[in-house]
Amino acid sequence: MDNSFWDTLAGINDVINEFVWVKIGIILLIGTGILMTILTGFFQVTHFGHWWKKTIGSLFDKKVISHTKEKASISQFQALCTALAATVGVGNIAGVSAAIMTGGPGAVFWMWVAAFFGMMTNYSENILGIYYRRKNHEGEWSGGAMYYLQDGLGGYPHMKIIGRILAIIFAVCAALAAFGIGNMGQVNKIVINFTSAFDIKPLSSKVLYSSGDTDVTLYMLIVGIVLMVLVGFVVLGGLKRIATVAETVVPVMVVLFVLGSIIIIIANYRGILPAFKAIFTMAFTKQAAWGGATGVAFKTIITQGCKRGVFSNEAGLGSSVMVHSNSNVKEPVKQGLWGIFEVFADTIIVCSMTALTILTSGVIDLTTGATDTASDATLVAEAFNTIFKFGNFEFGRIFIALAILAFAFTTILGWSHYGTKAVEYLAGKHAPVITKIYKILFVIMILSGALMTSSIAWDISDTFNGLMMIPNLIGVLAMSPVVMKLTRNYVDRRLHGKDVEPMLSFDPKIQEENAKIIKETQED
Prior knowledge:
Number of domains: 1
Structural class: mainly alpha
Distance between the termini: 61 Å
Shape: globular
Number of helices: 22
């Protein structure tokens, strides 16, 4: 097929992508976050102590971290780790760099703003996910935007068909986006960085084929096969295995990356105040606003490097809801609190560490964002090399390559679950067979990602991400009265001690069962 076809396809996709993300997406995304923050009374601020205590402060509570005995369910902590596995990805390294390179240091300020309001978007998605979930054929909880669009929005007068159509659009786009952004794009980034940092000449010198200026080597093929086997072992083992790997890897990778960043920042302590000054003084320039917008509005946009930036925390995308809904929690708002913490951990902590590492290390001009570095991922590696370089041994580059490996690998695991849940919804009674076929295809496509030289696959997948976001946010806005009622019900009972009936599920049967369990166990 000649290049004119791909050029035409790329041109069409660019037009759609521009319309979905820039014309509609950013306004809808930020607007929803602001509205949900106002409607819940700035919950992330007014109840900071409560959600902090019930999330990170509860990690020694066996009810939170212990593996549940419920069939096909996972613990609240496993749900968080699996969601973070998908959100804390390559974008937290390369995407933040790209946002700064595009918009200067001021872009960081706008990422913080978006994260602040995104906390309540993610909170709203998660409590709606729990409230409208149901059990599937295998006894596993299934929840997500497709269900609160179908049963929530669709439950309004004359909205049944519209709710169903939006639910199908969301599910189709989620299933397709998982192959690109959640699979091939991540794998491609792993392969490029790993083979570069750990070069094995006999393998890397064996060129299988070339496309443009890019060579695909035997080394890339071998790394791709290894990744395919590892991912296949985890993904085909089901949600329990994905959650087990996530709760083991995610905390370690986040802690190590944050510690490494803190060491860089402390070593370059003289640059801390200038970095913050640059962030705030340059936040309102046209360049910074654009860089910040691209940095928070796009989810892991990877082309031949990393395109513009990332939408790193997924708040508003509706994707992480699908794994939060698998939690064994009975109280919707309790899982919503983990949603707030998820955004806090991903953007306020991890992305901020990346940003400050870059800005304090001197690898970028604080006044313009200019740098001699061509690659966004290389920029972070250079920042680490300012401290972790011993002679010709560039430990910083190796560390970043390993970090990208861990971050991207877990992102693949998380997105495999998202895609599977979307297909499950679309397949209906045929779900047990269709989802197994989807998982096998998902694993096979990993090899394609390792050998790809074109960016069109994940460019299109990014567009599908935007097309996921729009129906999801329509659902959140339409169901905002339910979010308010659930929040008020929780606050009245848990914080003010009022004797009112808990709101746990839209399904009367599930409502009755869960209310009985909470009453019998005196669940906090």
